[in-house]
Amino acid sequence: MKDISPWSDELPDDYQEIIDKFGLEKFNVNEFPNPNHLMRRNIIFAGRGLKVISDCIKQKKDFYVLSGIMTSSEKIHLGTKSIIDMISYFQRQNAQTYVCIADLEALCTRNISLEESKKRALNFHIPIYLALGLDIKKTTFYFQSENKTVLHLSYAFSSKVTLNEYRAIYGNSEPSRILAALTQSADILFPQTIKKMPGIIPVGVDQDPHIRLTRDIVSRYKDYNFITPGSIYNKFMPSLDGSLKMSKSNINSAIFLPEDKNSACKKIMRALTGGRKDVEEQRKIGGVPENCMVFELYKQHLIEDDKKLNKVYEECKTGKILCGECKKNACDLMNKFLDSLNENFNKFKERIDDAKILKFKNN
Amino acid sequence: MKDISPWSDELPDDYQEIIDKFGLEKFNVNEFPNPNHLMRRNIIFAGRGLKVISDCIKQKKDFYVLSGIMTSSEKIHLGTKSIIDMISYFQRQNAQTYVCIADLEALCTRNISLEESKKRALNFHIPIYLALGLDIKKTTFYFQSENKTVLHLSYAFSSKVTLNEYRAIYGNSEPSRILAALTQSADILFPQTIKKMPGIIPVGVDQDPHIRLTRDIVSRYKDYNFITPGSIYNKFMPSLDGSLKMSKSNINSAIFLPEDKNSACKKIMRALTGGRKDVEEQRKIGGVPENCMVFELYKQHLIEDDKKLNKVYEECKTGKILCGECKKNACDLMNKFLDSLNENFNKFKERIDDAKILKFKNN
Lengths: 363, 363
Prior knowledge:
Two copies of one chain form a homodimer. The first copy, chain A, is α/β, with parallel strands linked by helices. Helices cover about 50% and strands about 10% of the residues of chain A.
């Protein structure tokens, strides 16, 4: 099996193998009301503690969804959009929504000052998260560094995990990584200190070690009766050449948000497709959308309507449409998406003072 | 060499060996104005960066002294008094005085809640530190858990020390210990974030690993131009039976502050002395005050005046006084000391609201 850890870029060969190996629950779309496109299309494939959350939705009980923003760069790409789509989904199902700015993690693992993180969060990350669909009135942001409850929980949790466990979970137990992991666990549980309720964390499956660690901590930390948090995993957005995960470090492999339309289109035109060796063959036996990164863009990001997506699929399969035309169509949809994103991004940059950022009382 | 670490109770055989092995500076009493009894009597025996501090004293430049209170129990013993005597010394030489309540350390290494630590600090530790001679008007206390600067520095420092270094320094690199050590370094440097100035940390020499770690961090953490902190080491107060360090965990080995006078006297009467096998021999060749725990009490705690101490020494050496009488004298002095301590302790418990406890502004 390939290396599926928070510090690897490899793409899994087989998601069922991950489910078996990590001991995950298989995601069942029928259990969740109003599933979004990622859930309907099996991009969401697994989770932990899913029934607790689907019950909360169906029975209209309080629960929360939480995600973290790493301020290590002022870039996000389409892979992050899928996470935000999942936060939005739970938000629409009435989850209390928390987004943590992981400025202390950026400080200890990337040496980024708190001031710089704050600037990046206010000027970029918060507006882009809102532009990608989070409800400005219903999303609570907070800075780790200002959240004493999170800090205190990190210290309290430190005695609950041994060094050997860290090494077994992460393969890396440097002090800064340990501190970052403890702080993530504290973040994941923080909303329960405001109101005790179940919570769910949408992440890439590479983040499962953090989830497992947090669930272990809950079972060991009896001073506060935390409810074990759930998680829900999406398959990775592959890089446009299909080789690895989409990644910030490989600029041509990723479409950034926001990104210049021409630049995005150029990348799409160069993307790996499921096309055949020549036009004739493709007209005859059709393309292979399953291997096509452009189809992946349609499926994960550009086409919300399942019927429309099926049409694209069929036209490819039957050789009715060729890769050049299909890519142009993808560019058109990407242009519309980027235009609308840009407009929203600028709007929320101006409205940053309306964003709900938790203020912490002094002692 | 014996185990001289923060987690050992062993007494060193030879302090010169420690100086050589740890690479310490030998303490020279002539370099410090107005030395107290511990400095004059070679109980203070070594340090790091001492000249910077003696220069500050002589040239009336700003510097600070800092110490930490571990709230793991509501007990302190005579060993702690020596540290407080040293804080007082530097305070009288105009050091800005900081005493940190290490509530986060107590949380992560002893699982003591922040609320419990706060209660203990206000009801016990702060009043007893004041009763032992710290100036209520000139001593600034703070709680680690409320000090965001300390918390942020702990995170910032985490990337500056590798796991292997921890293991080499401490022989123990469990997450909670690492977190405690990082937080101690942050405490040691915290006063410099208020005003950049040299500082000195009076500790038992078993704490030298923490000092070394902090000095290493200063040399590696260039974002803030910290001044390398100094340290000054006292020899251990031995247990009353002379076998180990005086320790909270061995009740009969220690005199606690405060302690019931009868109980303290009983312990003194049972203490190891430098007496001979019978009265006749002792009258003839005298006792051995160098091996006597009662003389250690006089020297470290009960007799401030060097001439008086010399008299006790000579009377023992010449066989003029026998152990029984000498112990009774020690009991008398201990009673006076405990009476006065008790009175002061009760006074400062009532005046706890006058103590200067740092309030931290929100963000």
